[in-house]
Amino acid sequence: MAEEKAAVIILFGGSGDLARRKLYPAMFGLYQRGFLQDRFAVIGTARRPWSDDYYRDIVTNAVKDQPGATPETAEAFATHFYYQSHDVTDAAHYITLKELAAKLDAQYHVGGNRLYYMAMAPNFFSTIAEHLKSESLLTATGFNRLVIEKPFGHDYQSAKALNESITATFAEKQIYRIDHYLGKEMTQAIMGLRFANPLVAAAWNKEHIQNIQITLAEAVGVEERAGYYENSGAMRDMVQNHVMQLLAYLTMARPQSLTPEAVHAVKGAVFDHLHSYSQKEALANFVRAQYAPAVIDKLTVAGYRDEAGVSQSSLTETFVAGKLMVDTPEFAGVPIYIRTGKRLTRKSTQISVVFKPVAHDLFGTQAKANVLTIYVEPSEGFSLTLNGKVLGQSTELMPEELRFRHDERAAKAAPEAYERLIQDALQGNQTNFTRWTELSQTWQFVDTIIAAWQTTTAMPTYPAGTMGPKEATELLARDGNQWVWQPTRVQLAD
Ligand SMILES: NC(=O)C1=CN([C@@H]2O[C@H](COP(=O)(O)OP(=O)(O)OC[C@H]3O[C@@H](n4cnc5c(N)ncnc54)[C@H](OP(=O)(O)O)[C@@H]3O)[C@@H](O)[C@H]2O)C=CC1
Ligand SMILES: O=C1O[C@H](COP(=O)(O)O)[C@@H](O)[C@H](O)[C@H]1O
């Protein structure tokens, strides 16, 4: 068990959806594991006029059904929560917040340790950072760390402006930019898989890898989030951050050590070598699309343009597929195909590494390419397909799969992404957070693709419940490749 951490956590957006669904359960997980124990307090802030008691009921309800929770532990946990009605644009409210934080600091003996967690709409991030500085909320003793939610900007220029504003208050080593995919079990397993297995490490390069495929598929549609999503789309919502981070873990060189500096150095080198596209190349190598109405399991599902809050002429993409390349000596020329979308066949995040077939095939054309698949979610594990032999007196080959999955119950009991990330932030470990340089590079890449799309109103569609438009299949077919994972609604298992 990790050693107890003492801190006052100031949560901006304490009444919000993220706080209730993810952050309180994550903190409760840390509480159950003893990482948060007696010496911590959380100040939840939002405009609505709640009392501490009302807020504690909200927190209790958010955690009471967590694995291992009892009514007693949930309530004891909630006693550490305090609420302040606070408008982040009102300087006077920061004075009250400062006084409350100082009082709790002394009451819980936290030694000045502060975590400022921005869990509200990103247009407020700069304002909060500026007020934390102007109203002198940062402590002179202990640590002051900022945890900042996504999206980090809307494009390169706005991300840069946001970064300038938060770095006027916090140094880079105090900033923890969240990408929750970095907290996922199987994202964190990629380094072990790649660098602790000589067999895998030896084949992890352009000599042996034919292509890499990254799929982040969601079955849900835009849900209630059209207000946000209409201004975002799949490229900004999923590709600029989650997909790019996975791509970096898959193609980076072996770090010198597991320190944040060493890991960020090799990740940064990947983004330095992202193969850039002209507008014409961007249009050829990236596909966008929107989901169209369909009947799924006898239920009619609306198309994107018919969703509440979406305009009939919307050009927001709900699906992206693309071909990227990393021009490092190890990976130059290896296509990295990515796809992500809403209303696809099923929820699944998986990565397939397709190896080159044997050069001189003793067995005619029977030998198939080896494929290593990493299952990120919902199941967690990996599989490797190899060429085996048909049983009996024959030289005929047959594909065999070596398959590992974490036990479902054990996986559920393991810390969830936000729990790991909050623990990391409290421990001062920045490995699983993003650096500004990474965001700067990925935004510039993504901006080029989006700018190319803005030159056309072409928007292919795909029926809800399928794996995207035919253009996404053609993208790979052009190179003689195909998506390894092609689920249909009748064959849903990983
Ligand atoms: N929800 C999710 O699953 C995910 C969310 N995120 C990110 O997390 C952040 C928060 O999202 P989410 O929780 O969904 O958003 P919500 O809209 O649910 O919550 C927003 C919060 O901000 C508060 N708020 C709004 N205006 C002000 C103001 N002027 N002063 C003080 N408080 C204010 C609201 O309370 P009140 O109205 O009372 O002021 C509320 O607590 C966003 O950056 C989002 O992109 C990231 C990944 C997933
Ligand atoms: O960041 C986001 O991620 C979720 C998908 O996350 P997952 O952990 O469930 O895979 C996505 O639904 C959302 O649109 C996006 O903002």
UniProtKB/TrEMBL annotation:
Binding of NADP(+), residues: 13-20, 47, 87-88, 150
HAMAP family: G6PD
Lineage, uppermost ranks: Bacteria, Bacillati, Bacillota, Bacilli, Lactobacillales
Family annotation (InterPro entries): G6P_DH, G6P_DH_AS, G6P_DH_C, G6P_DH_NAD-bd, NAD(P)-bd_dom_sf
Family: Belongs to the glucose-6-phosphate dehydrogenase family.
Domain Glucose-6-phosphate dehydrogenase NAD-binding: 10-188
Enzyme Commission no: 1.1.1.49
Keyword vocabulary terms for this entry: Carbohydrate metabolism, Glucose metabolism, NADP, Oxidoreductase
MF terms (GO), sorted A to Z: glucose-6-phosphate dehydrogenase activity
Record flagged with keyword Hydrolase: no
Binding site for substrate: 180, 184, 218, 237, 342, 347
Protein name: Glucose-6-phosphate 1-dehydrogenase
Active site: 242 (proton acceptor)
Protein role: Catalyzes the oxidation of glucose 6-phosphate to 6-phosphogluconolactone.
